[in-house]
Amino acid sequence: KQEVTQIPAALSVPEGENLVLNCSFTDSAIYNLQWFRQDPGKGLTSLLLIQSSQREQTSGRLNASLDKSSGRSTLYIAASQPGDSATYLCAVANSGYALNFGKGTSLLVTP
Amino acid sequence: DTAVSQTPKYLVTQMGNDKSIKCEQNLGHDTMYWYKQDSKKFLKIMFSYNNKELIINETVPNRFSPKSPDKAHLNLHINSLELGDSAVYFCASSQQGGSLTDTQYFGPGTRLTVL
Questions:
Q1: What is the pLDDT of residues B68-100, one digit of tens each?
Q2: Residues in CB range of B90: below 8 A, 6 or more apart
């Protein structure tokens, strides 16, 4: 059974800092890994998807890496802004018909 | 236009009642999902449907019955509601489940409170 762990559970940084969110998973036989953002009381927004054969994906200030053999992914956020404050969720697809989610990292970026 | 929509957004009901949550996607996707987010914010898959056929049923009580009248809709009916059913239920859809590049798009969620 796939287990997904995210560290840290919460993070508070001043505006402008670069930061790294970590995700680890126990079963390396994955289809892909997705990073989502969830704002309070809202749904999930997909940020990046990394296929199992890829090492990284970039979108704007976000960069996600994947090391399938070690069961790890990181989400790097450059030059953080208060608008980045949200919960970031890592999710792994094994069968392709379901995502296994971590419990998320709650990020607060202070002005 | 909203890509994945759910109704209602909030649902407050008494124990023992039966209720339904509706989900619609206008993305032309083949695969739809229901997830449950509990009080600790942990998201877990409940069901997935591909072209109206049930693919995954993750040890969900029989009181939960999904129904997919067509590819664009996946409704969730819950019988005999219990206190533990209180959660936020998210519907999602994707182009084609089982694909390496399949991205899931989520609805805004339905917050169910059972009193």
A1: 999 999 999 999 999 999 999 999 999 887 777
A2: A43, A44, B6, B34, B35, B36, B37, B43, B106, B107, B109, B110
